[in-house]
Specification:
By secondary structure, this protein is mostly helical. The protein has helices at about 1-30, 35-55, 65-100, 105-120, 125-150, 155-185, 190-210, 215-220, 225-250, 255-260, 265-275, 280-300. It has one domain (about 1-300). It has 12 helices and no strands. Mean pLDDT is about 85; it is low at about 150-155.
Length: about 300
Amino acid sequence: MIALVGELAALGTALCWAFTSIWFAAASRRVGALPVNFVRMPIALVYLALWGLFTRGHALPFDASAHAWTWLTASALAGFAFGDLCLFRAFVLIGPRLGSLVMASAPPITALLGWLALGEQLDARQLAGMAATTAGIAIAIRERRAQDAQDGLRDRGALTRGVVLALGGALGQASGLVLAKHGMGDYDPFAATQIRVIVGLGAFAVMVTAARAWPAVGAAIRDRRALGLASLGATFGPFLGVALSLLAAQNTATGVAASLMAVQPLLVIPLAVWLHGERVGKGALVGAALAVLGVALLVQ
């Protein structure tokens, strides 16, 4: 039953992040990736404080140990500050569908880091799953290149930057999950998420200050459409989605959890078609199917 809790939480994470990628991409196109990254944090922090007050009697995670704060801080810097910023910028450059497909590289990265840092063992079946996932990503990228050429979109530099940024997002997500599992132990995953959000809010405040982007943040808050999209994304992203991902990591191996989260591309494809009218070719479908096959092989 414990294993089922982890697996179901990972699948719930994938569903949350599928919607989140659409909403944050739309908000980022309106007001920019950095303002959206910042604005979502205080929104999520309010949700988490209310949840903690209702479920644990603690609005803030002051009952966490120094060990938890240290490693969850590192997790937040890797996942929120580095990984999500890379990913949201990638969504702007290459769209949520291709960005999410490149993020399918997160499971093998997570499994490798889990083996190195946590001693989680890899077997031949998992290695085959990693190979299938990587091949699926390659096929999807080739499909997008062919589609861009057909549509007359010849900015290869933007495509390359977007793919590299999405891979950075995958690395940030993978390392953030492994660091969070190490620091969390049996601590409440929603409270652990709140620590990560507090740290992420501070990190993005520094970034906004360094980039002199406070006027853009103010404009994002005044833009009702962007604020509404960011609020939806915060609900299903750093609140529910991230907390479910930590619950998954707490109850199963990080590689398995990340693998189940990687079904997100299958969920993003119909959403991107429905909401943005994106065209999906056979290559993208084959790539997504192969990536999901890799996910199935990675699940123990």
